[in-house]
Amino acid sequence: xxxxxxxxxxxxxxxxxxxxxxxxxxxxxxxxxxxxxxxxxxxxxxxxxxxxxxxxxxxxxxxxxxxxxxxxxxxxxxxxxxxxxxxxxxxxxxxx
Length: 96
What we know:
The structure is a single chain. The chain is α/β, with parallel strands linked by helices and about 100 residues long. About 40% of the residues lie in helices and about 20% in strands. It is built from 4 helices and 4 strands. The chain has a 4-stranded parallel β-sheet, with helices on both faces. It starts with 6 loop residues before the first strand and ends in a 7-residue tail after the last strand. The model has no long low-confidence stretch (mean pLDDT about 80).
């Protein structure tokens, strides 16, 4: 299970046409996590070219994907997060 002191990164935004929806979703998720007592929530505005660096700099132990649009549908963020060996979550994809 989760430790509420783990660093949780909420990935949002990105380059899709649904960017604003994703930013709103991500902010709501980050706020809810804080309200539930998670003390180390980091919000990442997805830059696909630098996502690996963003993820490393965040020191995330758990990643919650709030990205909307084509990039996530093709699984790119999912596989990058998986390759970085971070536990990650996204609706409709398996918990890893």
